[in-house]
Specification:
The model has no long low-confidence stretch (mean pLDDT 89). The chain is globular, with a radius of gyration of 17 Å. It has one domain. The protein has helices at 6-31, 37-59, 69-92, 95-102, 105-112. The chain is an all-alpha fold. The chain starts with 5 loop residues before the first helix and ends in a 5-residue tail after the last helix.
């Protein structure tokens, strides 16, 4: 059988990524009645750590070292706050509205990029 092209693999991975986000958001919305938002966020991060563990073990410690630790800490803090706000937003409104608002992220990122220039 012929090897798939890079474009085909990229398309397949994007479809899997989109499906995974739908499952994650739906599960967070469903579980938010029984589990606190901090726990949902922690479980999401723990799952990411499990998924990335083989790659980290393969690459070694060098994959975790950054040349700009201040920016990495800033990124961790802002990403954590954003994730908490996103999952909390899921508890307040419908999944469709949260998804629609989430699709505006590139617009706001572009408009606010001048602050970090």
């Amino acid at each position: 059988m012929k090897n798939p092209s890079d474009t085909t693999v990229s398309i397949i991975l994007m479809i899997i990524s989109g499906f995974s986000f739908v499952v994650m958001h739906s599960a967070a919305k469903f579980l938010s009645d029984q589990i606190h938002i901090f726990e949902i966020t922690f479980l999401r991060c723990a799952l990411v750590a499990v998924v990335l563990a083989p790659m980290i073990f393969k690459e070694g410690k060098s994959s975790l070292i950054t040349k700009q630790p201040k920016f990495q800490i800033y990124r961790i803090i802002t990403s954590s706050i954003a994730m908490l706000c996103f999952f909390y937003g899921l508890t307040l409104t419908t999944l469709a509205e949260v998804t629609a608002l989430n699709l505006t992220v590139p617009i706001f990122t572009t408009l606010l990029a001048f602050l970090f220039k």
